[in-house]
Amino acid sequence: MATVIIPTPLRKFTQNASKLQVEAATVGEALQHLAAEYPDLKKHLLDEQGQIRSFLNLFVGEHDVRDLQWADTPLPADATLSIVPAIAGGISDWANVTFSKEELARYNRHIIIPEFGIEGQQKLKAARVLVIGSGGLGSPLLLYLAAAGVGTIGIVDFDRVDASNLQRQVLFGVDAVGQPKVDAARQRLEALNPHIRIVTYDALLNSRNALDIIRDYDVVADGTDNFPTRYLVNDACVLLGKPNVYASIFQFEGQVSVFNYRHPNGELGPNYRDLYPTPPPPGLVPSCAEGGVLGVLPGIIGSMQACEVIKVITGVGEPLSGRLFFFDALSFETRIFRVRRRADNPLTGEQPTITQLIDYEQFCGVKVVERPVREITVQELLQWQAEGRVFQLVDVREPHEYEAANIGAELIPLGTVSENAHRFSREAPVVVHCRSGVRSAKAIRELEERFGFDNLFNLKGGILAYLEEVKPELAG
Predict the structure, then answer these.
(1) How far apart (Å, rounded) are the C-alpha atoms in residues 53 and 47?
(2) CA distance 412 to 63
(3) Which residue out of 237, 307, 364, 434 is catalytically annotated?
(4) Residue 402: enclosing H or E segment and its boundaries?
(5) What residues pair up with 326 in beta bridges, in sequence order?
(6) Model confidence over 276-321: pLDDT tens digits?
(7) Are 382 and 431 in contact (CB under 8 A)?
(8) What does the radius of gyration of the chain's CA atoms come to, in whole angstroms?
(9) Residues whose CB is less than 8 angstroms from the CB of residue 173 and which lie 6 or more positions away in sequence, other chains included
(10) 2-16, 64-78, 345-359: lowest mean pLDDT where?
(11) Residues 127-169: pLDDT tens digits?
(12) In 3D, which of 436, 426, 427, 428 has the Cα closest to residue 458?
């Protein structure tokens, strides 16, 4: 009898069988037998007229049946018929993935594992993984996914590398300080593995862009450090049907789980809202920036997160779906807790109330930390002036504020910054100020995100700090 290879997305209809034996003279006859034996599989193989679906790729051995006799292609008793759904990318396309000699040598230690083999490596290369956050968790996660050979890795992060990051964010070095994290991460990962593709999103993930970014990926890995983004990622993954590999850290403790995972039998696992239906009150749980984190902890938990991503992609092992892994570095104790789907889950419960993304800052009662901008102190600005350094000084306050007091800057009110972007120098440093530094930081973010400026500095404390230093009688 011929052997039929069932792809991962269809195994839930064949009782998780990856290979089936059929007695048939042709490819068409084999599919008819499968449809009769597994009725739920039929609609994925044959249309209403009993013809082979156009979105299927079928191979007898190494040969596409489209190049042979299509449904009438002979199927010898010792033949292997492979079913490959012709979808737009994704892990299901792994069967056609090939490797160069260099790649085979690089991934040899994976390929020689009996349970992993060339098939597991093909799935990794075919996969597209989106990593949200390239900081403490994202650093080891990205390094190991890139080294393992995940074909396409997307990175979402709006932050810049700061010296305080280097204690735990091993993706970056001293020379990366000041750079956008996604740019520094791309350089490091491409140097680590030139055979993969890195896609970067130097932006804050929010309700407006999350679905558009996430929909192009097979698996999402959440390395965020705030509740609004965590609920946003969860809800977007549920709405799009994407598995969400979750991890979090604080001081000496870490957690790992896999949410919204579709098991081989078709059963959907719980999501983040089944574990935490509502966020804690604002301020109750401090962030790592407020409470600190042991530098090595992200390496431990981020590596576990990478392991779960690889398991989800390859189908090797049992992912942490329906289970929450807990690690205490101080006592070196681990515990696993069961997580079940809740009937009152607003996304997947018996009476769903959330059918689209919401305002997560309002839901959590906290604001997502905005992108930090480079700053210059009043003392540093005075030094520049004393040295005769060439720079542009811009005031983004309103005209009436400017008339009341100014320090000789060029006036470009905040509301007109975009339309006047051409007035900002791209050659010389530009110092932007407002009353206290808030509006000028917003102006800088707008110019950097929309127009790609990389030479902007925010005057720390604004004109108030400047007057306090230079003309204290006018401050206030």
Answers:
(1) 6
(2) 65
(3) 434
(4) helix 399-404
(5) 255, 335
(6) 888 776 655 555 555 678 889 999 999 999 999 999 999 999 999 9
(7) no
(8) 27
(9) 166
(10) 2-16
(11) 999 999 999 999 999 999 999 999 999 999 988 888 778 889 9
(12) 436
Burial class (CB in 10 A: 0-12, 13-18, 19+), 300: middle
If residue 272 lies in a helix (H) or strand (E), which one and from where to where?
Answer: helix 272-275
Catalytic entry in 237, 288, 307, 364: 288
Please tell me the pTM assigned to this model.
Answer: 0.63
Looking at residue 362, what is its pLDDT?
A: 76
Phi, psi for 77 (deg, rounded to 5) = -60, -30
- Inter-residue contact 233 to 259 (CB < 8 Å): no
In terms of Cα–Cα distance, which of 448, 437, 410, 383 is closest to 159?
448
| Residue of 368, 365, 390 lying closest to 455 (CA atoms) | 390
Structure token pair of residue 99: 């490797």
Which burial class, exposed, middle or buried, applies to 9 when counting CB atoms under 10 A from its CB (0-12, 13-18, 19+)? middle
Angle between helices 462-470 and 378-387 (to 10 degrees): 70
434 noted as active-site residue:
yes
SS3 state of residue 438: helix
Query: Of 203, 196, 164, 198, whose CA–CA distance to 180 is shortest?
Result: 203
In terms of phi and psi (left: phi > 0; alpha: psi -120 to 50; beta: otherwise), the region of 260 is left
